Amino acid sequence: MASKTVKRAFKYHFYPTQVQAAQLSRTFGCVRLVYNKALAARSQAWEQHRERVGYSATSALLTGWKKTDDLAFLTEVSSVPLQQGLRHLQGAFSNFFAGRARYPKFKSKKKSRAGAEYTPSAFRYRDGNLTLAKMDQPLDIVWSRPLPEGASPSTVTVSRDAAGRWFVSLLCQDTITAAPVPEGVVGVDAGITSLVTLSTGEKITNPRHERRDRAKLVKAQRSLSRKARGSANRAKARVKVARVHARIADRRKDFLHKLTTRLVRENQVVVIEDLTVRNLVKNRTLARAISDAAWTQLRSMLEYKTHWYGRDLVVVDRFFPSTRMCSTPGCGHVCGRLPLNVRTWECERCGITHDRDVNAAINLKAAGPAAAVGPPLCDSGEARTVGAGAGVRPQREFFRSGRSASKQEGHGATREGAKASNHR
Prior knowledge:
By secondary structure, the protein is α+β, with helices and mostly antiparallel strands. It folds into 2 domains: 173 residues, no CATH class; 191 residues, no CATH class. Helix 5 packs antiparallel against helix 6 and helix 6 packs across helix 9. The protein is globular, with a radius of gyration of 25 Å.
């Protein structure tokens, strides 16, 4: 495989001065306000006149808003993040009309991510110093890793999380070094007790990051519940809760990065199952464990990493009976219902005893090569879905986006939980 040039974001902590923090907080608020006003204007134009308002029209509205007495403060911040907010709104509507997303929602001061995006006209990057528009001093960035040699950021995104931590993300061109091309194919079965089970028989234990910090989280949340609403003490307690959540999320992300990088480096084809996590978390018994396992994040990492390194990611149809089908060569018998507490089962036809997780991973591996013919991914880096097990379930058409044409949104979590969540 030849080296590949991709756009890659490099994210760093930074520590703003009081003046910079105040300026950025003001910018975040203005971006949120402009986004919401533009969304309201577009929604109103459609409801009243059946008129579609695009980016150009909302940009003209922004110019008018700045000239009013009530919104004159919009001129105190850089205009670029405000324009980028309108572009993001346009992208949200484009995804909605294309059927890829729901109708855009208004941004909330308490729940929405606080961030602002700057283009090259609104920042200066020289010799490791990044200075944003309307600021006199560069940001105090902790350069935890170097940017690619000679990199020139195309966009800079500044954000603040609920724990009060400040981040800056620089989007740069980066060259992905060619990795040795392996020959292996691996089936990956996601679970709870074992986060993933590989077709080689290896089981990777779920670290259960949320459970490890549950006592700290409970203590912080109880402290928060006792504080009066609107008080300064409640604001401090809320930050403490957010810090515990941030610690859990950081550890989880670090573990998943290491796991997915290993899978991509060691195998040419990675085969996973198309799990509908949105339905699975409706199971109240397993919702917390499934959320902590972060299967969606695992799949997302596999998608872009296989795209980067020229690997194949094959996503098998969710109705393929990987757990209940005998993986013994020449058998293929599909047994009846397997409750979650049944961890091993014996095939009625060949008499072989199977570990349900290992058996599922082996069946996923066997189903993978059928779809691993042709280009591994589309240009956007999305995975293919193979409708394996067509003889067991009625065949359906599949998009190359990794989702089936019939999304089966109404399927209950109990039925799918027996197959995918595997109480493992």
